[in-house]
Write a structure and sequence with these properties.
alpha+beta, elongated
Length: 189
C-alpha cells in the first residue's frame, strides 16, 4: 500500500513538472533594456544567433532585476516559472557570447529543463582585467556620450520534445537510483 502511494506521488510530481515544461516561456528575443541605446555594432545584431547588445548607464542589479522580472513569467497569463540565477566567472563570456567579448560580470537566468538567458555586462570603470590608471582607454562612447556599461544578451531556447525526453529520462533514472539505494541500505542492515 505504501509502495503504491509513493509511486502515485512520484508520478503526480512528474506530471506536475510536465505541466511546467508545456507552459510557453517568455517571448524571445527579450525586450530592449529601458533607457538604453541598442547596439548596431557587428556581432551585436544579426551576425550571431540569439544575441542583442545595449549601451546603458544602468548598474548590474538594475539590469539583472529587469531581465529576471521579465524572464520569470510565462507568456501564458504571466504564470510564474521556476527561475534560477547563476553567476559565472566573467572570463567564460568568451565561450558563451563570443571570443572578443569583454566582461565584468556574466550571469545566467535558467528555467530548469527549459531555456536560459545569459546576461554579460562590461563596466569599463570596474574592469578587473585592466589596471585602474589604464581604464580610461576602455570608455564606452556612443556619439558624444560616455556610457557606464555595455550589456550583451544571449538566449538559448529549447524544443518541447527535447524538454520532455530529457526530463522523463532523468525522472525515471532518479526513481531507479533511489529504489536501488534503498535496496542496498536494507541489504547492509
Amino acid at each position: 500500500m505504501k509502495k503504491n502511494l509513493l509511486k502515485k506521488i512520484w508520478l503526480g510530481l512528474g506530471f506536475l513538472f510536465t505541466f511546467y515544461l508545456f507552459l510557453p516561456g517568455p517571448k524571445l528575443p527579450p525586450p530592449d533594456l529601458p533607457d538604453s541605446l541598442k547596439s548596431t555594432l557587428p556581432g551585436d545584431t544579426i551576425q550571431l544567433p540569439r544575441i542583442s547588445g545595449y549601451f546603458t548607464d544602468k548598474n548590474r542589479s538594475d539590469v539583472i532585476d529587469f531581465y529576471k522580472n521579465y524572464f520569470s513569467k510565462s507568456s501564458f497569463l504571466n504564470f510564474p516559472l521556476l527561475t534560477i540565477r547563476l553567476n559565472h566567472p566573467p572570463e567564460h563570456a568568451k565561450q558563451v557570447i563570443r571570443d572578443t567579448t569583454r566582461s565584468y560580470y556574466l550571469e545566467e537566468l535558467v528555467h530548469p529543463f527549459r531555456e536560459s538567458l545569459f546576461i554579460n555586462g562590461f563596466e569599463w570603470e570596474k574592469d578587473v582585467f585592466t589596471s585602474p590608471e589604464k581604464r580610461a582607454k576602455n570608455k564606452i562612447l556612443t556619439g558624444d556620450r560616455v556610457r557606464r556599461a555595455k550589456i550583451i544578451l544571449r538566449w538559448f531556447p529549447s524544443k518541447l520534445l527535447f524538454r520532455l525526453a530529457i526530463f522523463w529520462s532523468c525522472w525515471i533514472a532518479l526513481w531507479v537510483i533511489v529504489k536501488e539505494w534503498k535496496r542496498e541500505i536494507r541489504g547492509q542492515m
